[in-house]
Amino acid sequence: MNALDRVNHFWVEVILCIFVLLLFVNGIDENLFIKNDVEKIQTYQRSEYFSKELGIFYRRPPIKYYLSDFEVVATKYFAKIRRSFDLENYFSSKLSYLLIPLIFLGGYNYLKNIGKEQLILVIILIFLLGFTKSTDLFGVSVFYLPVAYFSILGSLRIWKNKKIYI
Amino acid sequence: MEKQKDLYMKRILLLIIVMLALFLRLYDVGKVPAGIHRDEESHGYNAFSLLNTGKDRYGESFPILFRSFGSYQPPLYTYLAVIPIKLFGNTIQSVRLVSVFFGTALVLITFFFAQNLFKSKYKDGLSLVFALIIAISPIFIYFSRLVAEGNLGVTIFVASMLFFLVSLRKSKLFILGSFLLALSTHAYYSERIIAVIFLPLFLLIYKNYFLKNKTPVIIGATVFMIMMLPHLWIATSGALTRRLIEVGYGNDKIFFLEFIKRYLIYSSPSNIFFDLGPSLNRVSPGLGPFYMIFIAPFFLGIKYLKYFIDKEKIKLLLLLIIISPIPASLTGDSYYPLRALDQLWLVALVISVGFIGFTRVNLPSKIIVITLCFILLHSLATFYVSYFVLFKYEAAPYYGNAYVSLMSNLRNYKDSKIIIDSGRDPGIGLRMAYLTAYNPLDLQHKLRAQLKSPYYSGEVELYEDYDLGRIQIRAINWYQDIYKEQIIIGDTLAISDQQAEEHHLKLEFELTDLSNATKLRGFSTNPLAKCQSLDRRLIWESKCQGILY
Questions:
Q1: Contact B390 A119 (CB under 8 A)
Q2: Is the bond preceding B33 in cis, omega lying within 30 degrees of 0?
Q3: How far apart are CA B546 and CA B486, in angstroms?
Q4: How confident is the model over B272-317, as pLDDT tens digits?
Q5: What pTM does this model have?
Q6: In which domain, by residue range, is B445 found?
Q7: Does residue B31 lie in a domain region?
Q8: Same structural domain for residues B236 and B201?
Q9: Is there a domain that residue B26 lies in?
Q10: By CA distance, what is B361's nearest residue in A?
Q11: Which end of chain A has fewer beta carbons closer than 10 Å to its terminal beta carbon, N or C?
């Protein structure tokens, strides 16, 4: 086991948790729960399709309203989450393209070495981001933390005998 | 005894997975997607034409590439489609059956690939999970229910990878691997690029082994090159590169930067696990190529990849992971999953590793089984709602659903001349020709006459007029068509209410597609009323002389 495999990722998760909590200070994105006109029309159209296909299983009002409302919220929520997994956001400047091998290497190294439970925690944190307002500086800077961290890990992978404890 | 029981269980589970895959691909395949896309009807009619005349719809004998709607289609799908069209006739289902068959075969081939890839301790569980993920993933079901050359391409490509993998033990199978790899280049564009990059690099990585087994390599390489000759035959005509020019970056971009940007787009989990949105060639509403729930096992899979695969074999996998996004990255579209099917198959592999990695979590086995069953049921329910309900209706306009319904409506106008406007959809004419099994010799004669460039050329026209006897499919000519007694059919943009009133058109029928988005209207012309309404001076300039005098 080399020094890199012993990197303690615990503090990374702590920083991520604090970061996500900080994002919640800005409040929850209320737009998620408000339907605009286009969404209202779409919900109506889709309820017609469901009604045609599912028949009596769909006509019962509680299920109908639950499905249609839930679907709109879910669609908007997942569209927001999608940003966190978009690599283009992490490489917003052309210069950062030069760091791609380093970051991929660091990312792989990170995934290889953290525990399963930690990985699940990170994924849960990312999914929590979907509820936050993401148009502010905090939202954008979400991408900088992993880029910087993976770059360091990638560099360490290349000079793999250097020791670092974060 | 125990071993035999395990083997029996494995076979039963594999059979269940294959049957599930077949069911998901075959169920209502003629109705969802509702209608037929122009690329599908092109394969269908060309197969029908080949079956009856040995020539495609332009009268070209056994083409290397099929000229179609401004571009060229790889040939293998069309040649294979001859079989179901011979057996089941010119229906929407029959042309899609090739895809259904190869999409299901991919599940089986994937199983055998995994059996040879993973370490023996884990291979049975991993092979079954990998096959199951291919069976139920939206991307592989979606393209298996469509006439998609890429679906055929990925199946043959994976089959070739299976033989290359086994060739590391039995070198003779390298020949079969090379044959299939070359064959995949005739199935889809992506495989052309991957095959040319893959083969030399594969030999380079395993050079120590293959230097000891030169004969199969020499024979395999020769087979590969012979099978690539058809590409070379038309290399200078412009036809081979026509598609790449059509979908490339354009001249104003810096190639290197654009390539990296595209490579990132195709490697982004955002495009692999999330809904791409209506503007981004989405798979199905609310769904990405894979279920979003698969994102966790995907990351777990990256973590566990090297635990489950031997060091020697992981080199092959890494090579595939690096080169598989290249073809798609050479195109300028935002994200087009069909071009990245080989890469998405590898993503499925990583996901399956993640699922098996998940079973290593220190949780009671009951909870693990319940979680996995929940994921399976949740995935299938999500797919049903998204694909068989929302996609069926919302995608209907893109598959010309209203024009398929029109076919039965036209039976009420057997004695009338009919003009159908094709101003915005060049596929309407061929759709009619395919579904009515129109005489291929006659169509060949009419379409050949419209060619403005040699069959293999860099210049291919998108729009053509179709003259199917009493039915003509072309843009409406408002200076001529209204002065003849006939039925004119078009959507509300082609024939507005104002035009109908101005030209004394009488509404005969109205048709909508499933989503009510496309409204087709059929009008009968009234040349006499039109001419009588004209100004005396205009009568002499129009076609009215014969009608009024």
A1: no
A2: yes
A3: 16
A4: 999 887 766 678 998 999 999 999 899 889 988 888 998 889 999 9
A5: 0.91
A6: 401-544
A7: no
A8: yes
A9: no
A10: A116
A11: N
